[in-house]
Design a protein that fits this description.
The chain is α+β, with helices and mostly antiparallel strands. The protein is 27% helix and 22% strand. It has a 6-stranded antiparallel β-sheet. The protein binds zinc ion (2 copies).
């Protein structure tokens, strides 16, 4: 995705605080400096999930993230439309908000969960497939 300066400085859809851009490798996402929620533009979550230690960007407190997880009816920080709360197709206990056009929002701790389970699943399939 091309960097577009006009889309800079998003407001956190959960708490309304400003978000800062954080980069890991070649992936740049937005992180709220208050509630530590993470905004991923379409495709970025998968990209970051594939990066070793990509969850280093998920610095928030998962207990606090669970509180924010209860905040429903949030609007996409890019277009202002209502976002849809979706559970991950592979990990049903993880819920995040998505905008079909722009991306997804995860509360602090959720991305770590999302990523780790995947590594474990991959490891399992490697073990099974390898022998
Ligand atoms: Zn926030
Ligand atoms: Zn949107």
């Amino acid at each position: 995705m091309e960097y577009n300066p006009d889309q800079h400085s998003l407001k956190c859809p959960k708490c309304g605080h400003g978000m800062e851009e954080v980069t890991y490798g070649d992936v740049t996402i937005d992180r709220c400096s208050n509630c530590m929620g993470l905004w991923f533009d379409t495709g970025e979550a998968d990209k970051l999930k594939a990066r070793w230690m990509g969850d280093a960007l998920d610095l928030g407190n998962p207990t606090e993230g669970k509180q924010w997880d209860k905040v429903a009816d949030i609007a996409c920080p890019r277009c202002g439309k209502d976002m849809e709360k979706t559970s991950d197709p592979k990990q049903k206990h993880i819920w995040y908000e998505t905008c079909s056009e722009h991306g997804m929002f995860m509360d602090s701790g959720e991305f770590t969960d999302y990523k780790h389970e995947t590594l474990l699943d991959r490891f399992r399939s490697l073990v099974k497939g390898g022998r």
